[in-house]
Amino acid sequence: MRIAIILSTAAIFLAAGCASMPAKSGSAKERTGMVASMITEAEQLGARECAPRNLAKAKVALDHALHEVQEGYYHSTWLEPGIAEAEKTAGNLLAERKFAATLGIRFRCVSRQPAVSDGADPLHGG
Q: Are 68 and 74 in contact (CB under 8 A)?
């Protein structure tokens, strides 16, 4: 009797803990589809010419996540870090391309945080 009470109490606490964990909306396939559309939009905004390294990172992260999703035997907790990384990488790439697009054609390949190592100003050609 005492063991049954302890086990049922433990089960209640475990269920309450799992219910309070934040869950990402959408299935893994839906989320990877959204990442793919973000990458496509970034490509349309010039990512291939202006940010090839970031585009490649986003595509590799998506490919890794897609592979695990398509395998079909991974649990969602195993898939989450890979999908989250793909979302983050693609989101950053798309935000950078949208920012550059708002600056107009002249500054098409400008990012929010230009990597300037020689002191040159990428906005003014210096």
A: yes
The DSSP 8-state label assigned to residue 104 in this structure reads: -
Asked if residue 101 belongs to a domain, the reply is yes
Distance separating alpha carbons of residues 114 and 121, to the nearest angstrom:
9
List pLDDT tens digits, range 37-57.
999 999 999 999 989 999 999
Domains in the chain, number: 1
The answer as to whether 32 is a domain residue is: yes
**pTM beyond cutoff 0.85:** no
Q: What is the pLDDT of residues 18-35, one digit of tens each?
A: 444 444 567 888 999 999
Residue count of the chain: 126
Q: Is residue 16 part of a domain?
A: no
Question: Whose structure tokens read 């986003």?
Answer: 58
* Residue 62 structural domain: 25-107
**In a domain? residue 103:** yes
Residue 71 structure tokens: 């395998």
112-120: average pLDDT? 51
CB 62 within 8 A of CB 36: yes
Calpha distance 40→30 (Å, rounded): 15
